[in-house]
């Protein structure tokens, strides 16, 4: 595939933008080569500046569950634009989307809109601290909750990919209140709670991890955390920025039947526009300013154009539950096909999958946490990534990211992906 224009643009970009990108994982550092600059996207396709078309499985890191450039969302945005782009004042659509989310997401009685997943998680932890009067919180190694200082400790996603899961710039004063446990390790959580009795405000986790690759909760893990939080008066926060509206219309909390006290949302909620949100039990959310004392604010929070895109997306998902059975079928067909190829080639690699999220891990081990994820051969993954790209399939440029499927994928697209997968894996042995 010709990539002259992308390469030229990347060289220009590096003069003015750190690393040439506005988010690190886009730079292809983990897989080698230069990133592709994308001109447009449509359905399951990304088209780059050199005119190459790819079937893509990133979905803009999650939001594009209906595929790119969906007519319903495009038209809603264009229509909203006719009335102006930002007012800095409340609008009807904010009421409509808030009410809809309280109907779709089990734990949400009240919700506050922000502009990213990072803002959502930062705010949720602050509210949990304000509500409990406690300072510390527990996160899990390999989970990524955005780039807020207190989360960049043993963080996943780009932080893990770039080899700085503990970022410089995070002060010791901040880090001391972040307690770490291995994902899926309830005993470790009990020990932390015991050693920090009455000091832990919250436990926050990805209910299905996507940021060390796709890692599922062990049976009983979510239920065990719910029990600990009930016993200890700790706020249980599901970070559903990735899983919200993806694993079901009510997210992981609906799919796994465990209700947190709060959750954070992003990605799909904005239909491709910059939106995050945090919500939860009424008695907790009533602590948020101006109703309560915990301050949080945002110039563009609830932006009318973003709300138009998000509301259209959520109304579609809420009224078309068949989307989720369709995504489950696409996911199962694709992953069982990959597993069949691995078996036929005698390759002992691991696949983790739930609904429209999956990861092919280049390790023989089961991947259940940060340590087992780190056993992957990332060089081999890089060769797989580049091979798939040459075959016209665009994957996440990191071993430590979940892939995402959309309803824009037909059985023909799945066949193309499986054919490319088989050819590329054959070339690796
Ligand atoms: P944003 O601030 O990037 O909107 O959301 C942060 C965030 C919070 N919580 C979870 C579970 C997340 O997955 C994310 C962001 N996800 C990454 C992809 N793994 C965003 C991609 C990027 O950093 O460019």
Commentary on this structure:
The protein is an alpha/beta fold. It has 2 domains: 4-69 and 321-428, Aspartate Aminotransferase, domain 1, CATH 3.90.1150; 71-319, 3-Layer(aba) Sandwich (Aspartate Aminotransferase, domain 2). Helix content is 39%, strand content 14%. The chain is built from 15 helices and 14 strands. A 7-stranded mixed sheet has the order 4-10-9-8-7-5-6, with helices on both faces. The longest helix has 23 residues, at 322-344. The model has no long low-confidence stretch (mean pLDDT 97). The structure holds ligand KE4. Ligand KE4 binds next to helix 4 and helix 5.
Topology record:
Elements: H1 4-16, E1 38-42, E2 45-48, E3 53-56, H2 71-81, H3 92-104, E4 110-114, H4 117-132, E5 136-140, H5 157-161, H6 172-175, E6 178-181, H7 186-195, E7 200-205, H8 221-232, E8 235-239, H9 251-256, E9 262-265, E10 276-280, H10 282-285, H11 304-319, H12 322-344, E11 350-354, E12 357-361, H13 370-373, H14 378-390, E13 393-394, E14 403-404, H15 411-428
Parallel strand pairs: 3-13, 5-6, 5-7, 7-8, 8-9
Antiparallel strand pairs: 1-2, 2-3, 4-10, 9-10, 11-12, 12-14
Helix pairs in contact: 2-11, 3-11, 7-8, 12-15, 14-15
The chain binds ligand KE4.
Name its key features.
Aspartate Aminotransferase, domain 2; 2 domains; 4-stranded mixed sheet; 14 strands; binds ligand KE4; 429 residues; 15 helices; 7-stranded mixed sheet; single chain; Aspartate Aminotransferase, domain 1; 14% strand; alpha/beta
Give a short synopsis of this structure.
The protein has 429 residues and is of the alpha/beta class. It contains 15 helices and 14 strands. The chain has helices at 4-16, 71-81, 92-104, 117-132, 157-161, 172-175, 186-195, 221-232, 251-256, 282-285, 304-319, 322-344, 370-373, 378-390, 411-428, and strands at residues 38-42, 45-48, 53-56, 110-114, 136-140, 178-181, 200-205, 235-239, 262-265, 276-280, 350-354, 357-361, 393-394, 403-404.
């Amino acid at each position: 595939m010709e990539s002259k224009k992308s390469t030229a643009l990347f060289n220009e970009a590096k003069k003015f933008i750190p690393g040439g990108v506005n988010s690190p994982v886009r730079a292809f550092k983990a897989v080698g080569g230069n990133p592709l600059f994308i001109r447009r996207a449509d359905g399951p396709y990304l088209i780059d500046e050199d005119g190459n078309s790819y079937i893509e499985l990133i979905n803009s890191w999650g939001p594009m569950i209906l595929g790119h450039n969906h007519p319903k969302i495009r038209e809603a945005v264009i229509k909203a634009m006719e009335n102006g782009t930002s007012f800095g004042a409340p609008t009807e659509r904010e009421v409509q989307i808030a009410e809809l989310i309280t109907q779709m997401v089990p734990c949400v009685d009240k919700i506050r809109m922000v502009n990213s997943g990072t803002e959502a998680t930062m705010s949720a932890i602050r509210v949990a601290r304000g509500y409990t009067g406690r300072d510390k919180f527990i996160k899990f190694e390999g989970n990524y909750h955005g780039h807020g200082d207190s989360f960049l400790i043993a963080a996943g996603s780009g932080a893990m990919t770039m080899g700085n899961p503990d970022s410089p710039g995070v002060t010791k004063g901040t880090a001391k209140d972040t307690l770490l446990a291995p994902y899926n390790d309830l005993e470790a959580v009990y020990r932390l709670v015991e050693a920090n009795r009455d000091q832990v405000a919250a436990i926050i986790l990805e209910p299905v991890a996507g940021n060390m690759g796709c890692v599922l909760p062990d049976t009983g893990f979510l239920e065990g955390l719910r029990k600990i939080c009930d016993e200890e008066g700790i706020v249980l926060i599901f970070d559903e920025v990735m899983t919200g509206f993806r694993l079901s219309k009510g997210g992981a909390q609906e799919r796994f039947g465990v209700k947190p006290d709060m959750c954070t949302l992003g990605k799909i909620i904005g239909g491709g526009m910059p939106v995050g949100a945090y919500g939860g039990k009424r008695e907790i959310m009533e602590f948020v300013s101006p109703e309560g004392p915990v301050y949080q604010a945002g110039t563009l929070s609830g932006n009318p154009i973003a709300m138009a895109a998000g509301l259209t997306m959520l109304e579609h998902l809420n009224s078309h539950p068949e989307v989720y059975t369709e995504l489950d079928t696409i996911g199962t067909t694709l992953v069982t096909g990959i597993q069949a190829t691995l078996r036929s080639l005698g390759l002992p690699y691991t696949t983790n999958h739930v609904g429209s999220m999956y990861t092919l891990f280049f390790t023989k081990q089961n991947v259940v946490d940060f340590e087992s994820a780190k056993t992957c051969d990332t060089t081999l993954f890089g060769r797989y990534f580049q091979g798939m790209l040459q075959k016209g399939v665009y994957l996440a440029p990191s071993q430590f990211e979940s892939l995402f499927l959309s309803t824009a994928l037909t059985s023909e697209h799945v066949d193309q992906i499986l054919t490319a997968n088989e050819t590329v894996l054959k070339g690796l042995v």
